[in-house]
């Protein structure tokens, strides 16, 4: 398949858009666990596994939003989501549609993609090069 000039221009930019949108949604999980926004009945105990996940979601999500240290942060967050899937979702059912683990799997592989692709041009990492 032949690459068009439009694809050449927009593919790297859309990589940045994917990173920003995925990180914003992921960041929200951290704000919910640690800051109570959006409002939730779930408030993990400090230093528990869900609390540690919330810290990683909040800090890692913020770093990915701006595209700073993208590759190592994405690596850590991909691992976090793999652990979350296998410890919290998979024991409920082998089927992601039934165990609620769809998002964890998707985040795991999107973040793993960022490990190899990098952040895209709209990032702090790109301006530091």
Automatic annotation (TrEMBL):
It is found in: Cell membrane. It holds the Pfam family DoxX. It comes from the Bacteria. It comes from Puniceibacterium antarcticum. Its main location: membrane. Keywords: Cell membrane, Membrane, Transmembrane, Transmembrane helix. InterPro entries: DoxX (IPR032808), DoxX-like_oxidoreductase (IPR051907). The keyword GTP-binding does not apply. GO terms for cellular component: plasma membrane. The chain crosses the membrane at residues 9-27, 47-66, 73-92, 104-124. This is DoxX family protein. PANTHER family: BLL4328 PROTEIN, OXIDOREDUCTASE CATD-RELATED. Belongs to the DoxX family. It is a multi-pass membrane protein.
């Amino acid at each position: 398949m032949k690459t068009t000039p439009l694809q050449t221009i927009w593919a790297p930019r859309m990589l940045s858009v994917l990173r920003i949108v995925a990180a914003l949604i992921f960041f929200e999980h951290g704000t919910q666990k640690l800051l109570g926004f959006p409002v939730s009945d779930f408030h993990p105990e400090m230093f528990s596994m869900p609390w540690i996940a919330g810290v990683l979601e909040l800090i890692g999500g913020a770093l990915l939003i701006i595209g700073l240290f993208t590759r190592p942060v994405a690596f850590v967050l991909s691992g976090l989501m793999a652990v979350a899937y296998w410890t919290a979702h998979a024991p409920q059912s082998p089927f992601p549609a039934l165990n609620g683990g769809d998002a964890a799997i998707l985040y795991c592989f999107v973040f793993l993609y960022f490990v190899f692709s990098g952040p895209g041009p709209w990032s702090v990492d790109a301006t530091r090069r």
